[in-house]
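Journal club side-thread
Mid-discussion, someone asked how the predicted structure for our own chain would compare to the paper's figures. Pasting it here so we can look after the session.
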Amino acid sequence: MRVLVLGGAGMLGHELASALAGRHDVGVTVHGPRPPRRRDRSDPWAGALPANRIFAGLDVRCQDDLAGLLADFRPEAVVNAVGLVKQRPEGRTALPAVEINTVFPHRLARLCRIAGVRMVHVSSDCVFSGRRGRYTEDDQPDPVDVYGMSKLLGEIREAPVVTLRTSIIGLEPAGRGSGLVEWFLAQTGQVSGYRRAIYTGLTTMEFARVVDRLLTKHEDLTGLWHVATAEAITKHELLTRLADRLRRAGGSRAVAEVVAAEGPACDRSLLADRFAEATGYTAPGWDAMLDELVERITLRDDGGRRDG
């Protein structure tokens, strides 16, 4: 299948592109210049994509450029991994957040509908306040910030779009980024792990497998779905398990000590029963996902090469 990944140099997009490239004809867009073509940590896709499948300098806010790319590349599916995250100042500012997280997905959906192309869109558990937890697709969203509202308004339930509400952790290109994992890897000494922050997300590697499953086995699935692990975990426990595995893996990396902290109470756990019933997919628990993540971290630390 010919698949276009938008936002292919971000935390999710680079993992989607490199993972899907083993089974599909994948193209990626990047906002800036084309990254170096080396099979090491400076290459977001670890050498998995040829140069003619990397579309650099694309401004997704330009509808004509986007329509031209769809016409030229002629994908059968588009995966939207473009988004402003709340860790960046722009993600907390109304105009850029709404432009990228709200308006763009609807514009893309219209172009995909015209072209007869399936679209996979990624939303966030931040559409919920976290006051209650164990949210289903039928629960009324109640975002508490600009980011959450912009993601909520960007959700699309009509064909040909499948919208996946989730949350992800993972490695970022060249080891730079503001996500939880890269932040933790950069720390030394002690860090706080919140005991009242509840999480049911996936690693980017596991989420890429979910997307591949949708593309290959559930071509007709549309609408809004929660994708999450059934094993709710606190941020303290998540970081503690990650730290323990990193220490056992050895190597020269210094691993920060995770100290329990109360922190704000926030339970954005999602229930994915409906998605499991529709697709037969059940996410693995955290031990399995963290084992895979630490293996990837170790490979990167040992020189940046990986084969999977």
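Post-session note: The chain has one domain: 2-171+203-230+268-289.
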